Amino acid sequence: MSLDNHYDVNAALDKALKDDFLRMATRRATDRLRNGKLNVTEELGNWEEWRQVGEKIRNHVVANLDYYLNMLIENVEKNGGHVHLAKTPEEAVKVVQEIFKKHGFKSVIKSKSMITEEIHLNPVLEKDGIEVVETDLAEYIIQIANEPPSHIIVPAMHKTREQIAKLFEPIAGHPLATDTPTLTKFAREQLREKFLSSKIGITGCNFAVAETGTITMVTNEGNGRMTSTFPEVQITMMGMERIVPSFKELSVMLNLLARSATGQRISVYTTMITPPRREGDLDGPKEWHLVILDHNRSEILGDPDFRSSLRCIRCGACFNVCPVYRQVGGHAYGSVYSGPIGIVITPLLEKDYEKWGHLPYFSSLCAACSEACPVRIPLHDLIVKHRDRKVLKGLTPGSEKTIFKYYGKYFSSPKKLQRLVHLGATFQPLLMSNGRITRGPAPISNWTNSRTLPPIAKQMFRDRWPQLKQELEKHKGGDQ
Amino acid sequence: MSERQEFIAHIAQKLGRPTPSTMEPLVLNFPLFRLNSQEERIDKFIKIFEGLGGKATTASTAGEAAQALKNWFGETPSWLNNTAIVTWGELPTMARACLEELGWPARTYGEIPAEERKAFLDRTELGITGADYAIAQSGSLVLKSSPKRGRGVSLAPIRHLTFVSASVMRDSLDQVMDELMQEEVPAAIEIITGPSRTSDIEMDLSIGVHGPVEVYAIVMVDQ
């Protein structure tokens, strides 16, 4: 399933809303993650202070990104790594293709990386005849299903165990029981062989430490460690803003990330690698490539309205509190990054309001996302700014323009409004049953198709006002 | 202009100023998790470590450590054979003495020929390592790599056992990071917190995906 082509927002929403399992699973996943987060943030006793420090660190890095990026590149090269700077997804993909071509590798193991989703790396490598194996259990599942992630932290939460067993069956060559231990064991065995035989690994990066040239990855399964321990060649892909100055700031960010993402004090494996392997080391890659991607992040940097979105550490906390995400899950958004942060960064990364202009409306603007964000990105404010920009770009649908034209006309003149309301009150019985408006003409039907509206009062407040005013004055007089 | 200079200059331009040549370090002052004594740290570590599904105990002698291993794995573990146990080349004295006392054969990772190493690891039942630090707040172990400290030993076997000295027990991650900043950076620093796990199938917690299924820690205390 490719979301990029043939994406129809209404069809996607309808599909999501009719999928009872998806909606239950989304609520289950988000509840679990959100409650876990509450437990481990409350035990700190000063979570708000942690958030402020997180914001300060990330603001500092973003505001001095050129300085820290320079430092990171210098240190990686000093350690013996190869740095590749990619302005566009196409350039990043090409860098990776060249590395494969140079070595002639025909298969690769991958640990979770949103950047590789962002640049759509897998299909290109597969076209080159390379077998790409995702090793995070969830990524492995959705790779077999040929679907994009539905959640940034738990990408396969929309799959039932029965569906997962069915997906594994052709690989196993026999039916599988659907209990979690059986399915997990199957994946462990399948992937273990790949881990030990693969010559090259591709990983993502949670934080790059500028001062040392260290890449930090957090995983719970150990696939990130496997991918960075056993292959001879390793490629690490990172968005260019994913930097911290030193281990000191890293410590704060790791606390914020693990607690916000999965409700853990720290993830099972926090892997801080400074490749390549040292003289005499028994494992770790001998050759290491770091691909640093811009993909319009520099444009966001130069846009004061949206610069704060570069603070994001991809924890997914905003997904878990979002009333819209919780109803429809990630696929309905149509974008690689979903949830509130996806709404904010997708139109900017893709530089396309026409294609992604629907996203800012996947929000009730309740601000729960801003409150959940461990680095205090004002997500709901940014979503409103996107709506502004879409309007200013003249991308508002014609029907909406017409509605607001008339809205402006009638609501700016008391006389016209009064006339309109009286008209409505006279004719509304045609649309009513049981004292409520139940069937409206378009666009009111968008509402009345699924719920009812209260009727317009028989007598407007404006009509009653002269009488009310008299009563009020009488009352006042009595007081004196 | 090189490609890199151009890349950096483009960012500086977007930030609307030339790239700074020096940077004041950030000042981060806020209250962090602190315990009052070594005993508290050890207790907290063991409690959190076991809460994650691991098994941990203190030992002041190799004999005590050997007893703990017997309690955990049985007098003679059913999985024991000549290639079941793999260890770092550089192990704490207590760990070596403990294995000797038990009479359990163990292979050193570095002594296995490079081309057989991965296949060998895959068949091992227990990996034994030391640790540079332990963290009480999160029940974590911090392992730096070196030629005598193979990374695979704490990763590929079904079980991972760590011997960690009580003297390197710290309150929280920030203290460890501060110390790591003063030391030479190795190819890998692994912070390990409990057994490998996933909740990827219907949010159902499952232990042991790619890394060890069982984790054990001996906290070595002075006699």
Question: What would your notes on this structure say?
Answer:
The complex is a heterodimer of chains A (480) and B (223). In chain A, the strands form three sheets. Chain A has a six-stranded parallel sheet with strand order 1-10-7-4-2-3, sandwiched between helices. Chain A folds into two domains: 40-299, Rossmann fold (3-Layer(aba) Sandwich), CATH 3.40.50; 399-479, no CATH class. Chain A starts with 8 loop residues before the first helix and ends with a helix. Chain A has helices at residues 9-18, 20-42, 47-63, 65-79, 89-103, 114-118, 121-127, 137-145, 161-172, 180-197, 223-229, 247-262, 297-301, 317-321, 325-328, 339-349, 353-356, 368-372, 379-392, 398-411, 414-427, 445-448, 461-479; strands at 82-86, 107-110, 131-134, 200-203, 207-209, 214-219, 233-239, 243-244, 269-273, 287-293, 432-433, 436-437. Chain A contains 23 helices and twelve strands. In chain A, 53% of the residues lie in helices and 11% in strands. By secondary structure, chain A is an alpha/beta fold. Chain B has 223 residues and is an alpha/beta fold. Chain B has six helices and twelve strands. In chain B, the strands form three sheets. Chain B has a six-stranded parallel sheet, sandwiched between helices. A four-stranded mixed sheet of chain B has the order 8-5-6-9. In chain B, helix 4 (93-102) links the parallel strand 2 and strand 3. The longest helix of chain B is centred in the first third of the chain and has 14 residues, at 38-51. At the A-B interface, helix 2, helix 3, helix 4, helix 8 and helix 10 of A face helix 1, helix 5, helix 6, strand 9 and strand 10 of B. Strand 9 (269-273) of chain A pairs antiparallel with strand 9 of chain B, so a sheet runs across the interface.
